[in-house]
Design goal:
This protein is an alpha/beta fold. It has one domain (about 15-275): Rossmann fold, CATH 3.40.50. Helix content is about 30%, strand content about 15%. The protein has eight helices and eleven strands. The strands form three sheets. A seven-stranded parallel beta sheet has the order 3-2-1-4-5-7-10, with helices on both faces. Helix 2 (about 70-75) crosses helix 3 (about 95-115). The longest helix has 22 residues, at about 95-115. The protein is globular. The model is unreliable at about 1-10 (pLDDT under 50). The structure holds 1,4-dihydronicotinamide adenine dinucleotide and D-galactaro-1,5-lactone. 1,4-dihydronicotinamide adenine dinucleotide binds next to helix 1, helix 3, strand 5 and strand 8.
């Protein structure tokens, strides 16, 4: 009997009628698209115009939408019970790009949720909300935010938006401060921050179906040998990761290490802490 994976209220075969998945053409979106079918009778798949093929499965509908377009986002959320919000700029970029996709984008999404009666959102937040903590520190979700750039700032704004829309309108959100969700860890830093697609999928399911989450912030990482994050504030989700970055250690450590004073070796946000600024040329 696996105690840590025993049934919880999130394990039931509950389904939404219609779930919206934004950012469906991205790395995580492509990896989970086929898996979210189990979460809803119908899945509305969305990304920017021109990036999704028109190959909808029977349970899917494809709706292209720029998140910065308020009217389009309002229509996108129509008749949806829940949203998995992955869409947006996912790396450090000039502020104007972040403003459109991530800041206006998340505002438009929550406004649409309010107007269209969406009850639950899972927001793809990021470890870059707290990227200026050191790698020798261990933090939980109550730690003060220390965004490491415009991108981290936009995710911090998204989390605050989620809190506002819960306090004011009762829309529940789980903000997942994702570490590094990729097929495998790419470097030494990701030995701590990596999360497998399977663990992400399990956390996503719990984030959608655990009752009474209010606005919960949870760090998304696998059961790595060393991590920087403590999920005690999200214990009610019952999330216990199964995978680990350890099987990739030899491969990762075969590459030359960074200098011990390099931010990639010192700060949780790694290279994001030194990317930019993007002065006009
Ligand atoms: P990705 O960059 O591969 O995918 C993001 C998707 O959003 C893309 O398909 C892109 O076309 C779409 N998008 C960008 N601007 C948009 C706009 N204005 N309107 C509509 N769609 C737009 O990113 P990935 O890795 O799949 O991450 C998914 C989400 O999780 C992102 O929000 C990212 O910030 C967040 N995240 C991911 C992490 C990771 O390790 N992969 C770590 C932390 C957070
Ligand atoms: C993120 O927030 C990015 O979206 C992703 O591309 C990775 O760089 C990840 O953080 C990370 O910190 O490794």
């Amino acid at each position: 009997m696996e105690q840590q994976h025993s049934a919880s209220s999130a394990d039931c075969a509950a389904q939404f009628d219609r779930l919206l998945l934004t950012g469906a053409a991205g790395g995580i979106g492509r990896a989970i698209r086929h898996r979210v079918a189990q979460f809803a009778r119908q899945v509305r798949i969305s990304d920017l115009p021109g990036v999704l093929a028109s190959d909808a499965a029977l349970h899917e509908e494809i709706v292209a939408c720029d998140l910065a377009d308020r009217q389009a986002v309002d229509a996108l959320a129509k008749d949806c019970d829940a949203i998995v919000h992955l869409g947006g700029v996912s790396v450090e970029r000039p502020f104007e790009e972040i403003l459109e996709a991530n800041i206006k984008g998340v505002f438009n999404l929550y406004e649409a949720a309010r107007r269209q009666g969406v009850k639950r959102i899972v927001f793809a937040s990021s470890n870059h909300v707290t990227g200026f903590y050191r790698q020798d520190e261990r933090i939980d979700a109550a730690a003060r935010k220390r965004p490491d750039g415009y991108y981290g700032l936009s995710k911090s704004f998204g989390e605050d938006t989620a809190q506002l829309y819960f306090d004011r309108y009762g829309i529940e959100t789980v903000s997942i401060r994702i570490g590094s969700v990729f097929p495998e860890p790419k470097d030494r830093r990701m030995m701590a921050s990596w999360m497998s697609y399977d663990d992400f999928h399990d956390l996503l399911r719990r984030s959608l179906f655990t009752p009474d989450v209010g606005h919960t912030i949870v760090f998304g990482m696998s059961a790595n040998a060393h991590t920087w994050w403590d999920n005690r504030c999200a214990a009610h989700l019952g999330f216990v990761p199964r995978d680990s970055s350890e099987p990739f250690r030899d491969k990762v450590e075969a590459t030359p290490p960074p200098a011990p004073t390099d931010p990639v070796a010192v700060l949780q946000g790694g290279a994001f802490t030194t990317t930019g600024p993007f002065d006009p040329v």
